[in-house]
Design goal:
By secondary structure, the chain is of the alpha/beta class. The protein contains five helices and four strands.
Length: 152
């Protein structure tokens, strides 16, 4: 089920203190990573609610890498809150027929260039195998509305 890398899109939610700094370090090394990875810097990924991830998939993002600084985050409780959000998103994805492997939470430090590039590469390899998210969403069973029965 191979797919052209230009067709698939990876959103990287990169905390300023972690993933974005790692992406910047990759750039300073003049290293390259896949052009289908879109880096979105943010203070902390915990600012995005569960439905943000679902909407991103529904709108065509094939994978989301949440790259944050983990327990080194300067915001008290943000790392734990981010992990909690991601853990709540996984069952919501499965309910919609979306492969949970499309969403990854990874701790990336300011100088983690190789881990940053490896995460993007591994996600692209996964997406080559499972294809675009639109196929999973289209194949998902449509929930049937419950019809209330009148009591006699």
């Amino acid at each position: 089920m191979g797919t052209n890398a230009k067709e698939i899109k990876i959103l990287i939610l990169a905390s300023i203190s972690g993933g974005y700094a790692g992406a910047d370090s990759v750039g300073q090394l003049h290293a390259e990573y896949a052009p289908n990875a879109y880096v979105f810097p943010c203070r902390s990924p915990c600012m995005f609610p569960e439905d943000f991830y679902l909407r991103a998939f529904e709108r065509g993002m094939d994978a989301i890498l949440v790259m944050y600084s983990g327990t080194d985050c300067p915001y008290k409780g943000a790392a734990e809150h981010t992990a909690g959000i991601i853990n709540r998103v996984y069952p919501m994805m499965q309910e919609r027929g979306i492969d949970a492997r499309r969403l990854r939470l990874v701790a990336i430090c300011t100088v983690c260039t190789k881990p940053f590039m490896r995460e993007v590469e591994q996600m692209n390899e996964l997406l080559q195998g499972i294809g675009p998210v639109r196929d999973e969403i289209a194949a998902a069973p449509v929930p049937q509305p419950q019809i209330a029965q009148s009591g006699k």
